[in-house]
Design goal:
The protein is of the alpha/beta class. The chain has 22 helices and ten strands. A six-stranded mixed sheet has the order 6-7-8-3-9-10. The protein has a four-stranded antiparallel sheet with strand order 2-1-4-5, with no helix packed on it. The longest helix is centred in the middle third of the chain and has 53 residues, at 252-304. The protein is elongated and about 125 Å long.
Length: 613
């Protein structure tokens, strides 16, 4: 139940509702007990043949010694007897029915009020859980997602949270209400007959143990089902993301078979899960019936031996029957909770994942970039103790205002080197310094505020043109956005769109061409106006006309700024202040374009290959 308390910790902010829920649950149970007490005078009214017994009760006088069952029963019998003698049995029957209906009205009113105050808890806890998952998902470093399947992560964030909402949160009512119900009713039957209740106390834990075994088995089955569902999400995500390739290679049937195989495994696992869920209710009902028959047997023997009054035994059986219902509901809730806790385990894999990009307790201020960036003996590996370093002993200085180009074969480490500057990854050895300060000692938001990023793949959002350009800058005015778009050569095509800057560009900017998407990305960087730029060759996937427009926009963007350019086309970085040639995680060569060509080394080979291509 440790994970259940992990979920219930989110209740902390809603205890004011929880207290009212408990109060109204107690009142509901109390009126429920009174509704049972009403049955005894009703039976007496039907059984007694004449009024002689009622006259005897009146003769003894009104007696009330406090809130005990005998005292309340004696007081109620006196009032009922007076009513029967004075008004007749029919009038008394009507009175009992009216009072009984009133008690049931208040019982259900208080039950509704308890549920009324539970609703904000149930939905608030799920809301907070969603917020925690999303917050953690945004905070986790990029390295975490490189080793996880996106579909499985989406499954945890969506279906697993929904499972908790329906399985765990829907059981909160039973968790808050039924134990109170059981304890109060148990107190009543202990008062009526401690000996008979002893059998109940012995038998109930045995049935609870059996239900617990079913619940643990259910949790295992549900966890396996969630893993299969994560695989289904992954296949869907891969298929939709690569639909052009799937169709182009006539692989529809292959993907259908792959999906169908995983879907079959998931279906079989869910069949096992639901069978175990459905087993909990009949097992608990059967065990409840066994306990009830045992109570009736021993109670009947006590009545035969004059150890227990017949009316008290009837009241005892009726009260005990009211315990069985919440006990059965509670065992059903326990099974649902176990099913939901399998989802909680999967969610905790995100919530408890280690965030390796951390800030120091008292970060130093870093508001401006004045002199230089320095990579000092920087080494980095994606998997510690794995296949070796992606970067190995890198030493590099970038003066303010310089344009530094990173070139090399795929896997040489140039993208990783650039990604370490905004702390998407942290160094394993060495340090990266800005104006002599290790960026690990500065506030993360201040480090990234100094930098603008334009990637090879345009990252846009399903929103308006204005909001995409002003992303991360909520106070930007329309005039500032338009000016950024002009610099990025994007204003002309934006004004031709149906709603101009308020036009929605679709999922990942799907309504725009590649060149248009890239120019919006550049406009976003222009608006941020950072002193440091990180550019992953933004023109490599564009046609000639779009490339010219984007390159012109990049040149305007890079003016008077410090730029780190990841270059795939060597023709675009010939005027860089320094070209860094990466090979197997190390700097193989460095210098200007003409100097590197004269060396007849790695850069010359890359240049010749592109020239012949």
């Amino acid at each position: 139940m440790k994970n259940l308390f992990g979920v219930l910790k989110y209740v902390n902010g809603y205890w004011r509702y929880g207290i009212w829920n408990i109060i109204f649950n107690i009142l509901s149970v109390i009126f429920g007990v009174f509704s049972l007490v009403m049955i005894l005078p009703f039976l007496s009214l039907l059984i007694e043949p004449d009024d002689s017994k009622y006259r005897e009760i009146i003769a003894k006088g009104k007696v009330f010694h406090g809130l005990s069952l005998d005292s309340v029963s004696s007081y109620f019998n006196y009032e009922l007897s007076s009513l029967i003698v004075d008004k007749g049995k029919v009038y008394a029957l009507i009175a009992i029915c009216v009072v009984g209906a009133s008690i049931f009205f208040f019982k259900n009113l208080f039950r509704y009020l308890a549920m009324y105050f539970l609703a904000p808890i149930r939905n608030g806890v799920v809301k907070d859980l969603r917020n925690s998952i999303y917050k953690k998902s945004v905070e986790l470093p990029l390295s975490y997602y490189s080793s996880e399947r996106k579909g499985d992560l989406m499954s945890r964030i969506t279906t697993d949270v929904q499972e908790i909402e329906w399985s765990v949160m829907s059981s909160l009512e039973m968790i808050f209400r039924d134990p109170i119900n059981i304890l109060i009713l148990l107190g009543v039957i202990i008062y009526v007959s401690p000996q008979l209740t002893l059998f109940v106390i012995v038998l109930l834990p045995l049935s609870a143990g059996l239900i617990s075994l079913i619940g643990k088995s259910l949790k295992r089955s549900s966890g396996k089902a969630k893993e299969e569902l994560g695989s289904l999400f992954s296949i869907m995500e891969e298929t939709l993301g690569g639909l052009r390739i799937v169709k182009g290679f006539n692989a529809e049937k292959k993907m259908q078979e792959k999906f169908g195989e995983v879907n079959t495994h998931y279906t079989k696992q869910m069949v096992h899960t639901y069978r175990k869920v459905d087993l909990a209710s009949p097992v608990s009902e059967f065990l409840g019936a066994v306990i009830m028959m045992t109570v009736m047997y021993f109670g009947g023997m006590m009545v035969f031996g004059n150890h227990l009054d017949g009316k008290q035994f009837i009241f005892y059986v009726l009260t005990f029957s009211q315990i069985i219902t919440p006990a059965k509901t509670l065992t059903g809730a326990y099974s649902n909770v176990q099913k939901g806790l399998a989802s909680m385990d999967r969610i905790n894999m995100i919530l408890k994942a280690e965030n390796t990009i951390l800030e120091v307790p008292n970060p130093k201020p870093l508001h401006h970039f004045v002199k230089e960036i320095e990579y000092r003996d920087v080494s980095f590996a994606y998997k510690k103790g794995g296949e070796g370093y992606v970067l190995n002993k890198i030493n590099l200085k970038i003066k303010k205002g310089q344009t530094i180009a990173l070139v090399g074969q795929s896997g040489s480490g140039k993208t990783t080197l650039a990604d370490m500057l905004p702390r998407f990854y942290d160094t394993d050895e060495g340090a990266i310094l800005v104006d002599g300060m290790d960026i690990k000692e500065a506030k993360l938001s201040e480090v990234r505020a100094l930098m603008g990023i334009v990637t090879q793949e345009s990252i846009l959002f399903n929103d308006s043109v204005f909001n995409n350009i002003a992303f991360g800058n909520p106070e930007a005015s329309m005039e500032a956005v338009i000016e950024a778009a002009r610099i990025a050569n994007a204003h002309e095509f934006i004004t031709q769109m149906p709603q101009g800057y308020l036009t929605n560009i679709g999922d990942r900017g799907g309504k725009l061409s590649g060149g248009q998407r890239q120019r919006l990305s550049i406009a976003r960087a222009v608006l941020k106006n950072p002193p440091i730029l990180i550019l992953d060759e933004a023109t490599s996937a564009l046609d000639t006309e779009s490339e010219r427009l984007v390159q012109d926009a990049l040149n305007k963007l890079m003016m008077n700024r410090t730029s780190v350019v990841i270059a795939h086309r060597l023709s675009t970085i010939q005027h860089a202040d320094e070209i860094i040639v990466m090979q197997k995680g190390q700097i193989a060569e460095r210098g200007k374009h003409t100097e590197l060509l004269e060396k007849e080394g790695v850069y010359r080979k890359l240049y010749d290959l592109q020239s012949f291509a």
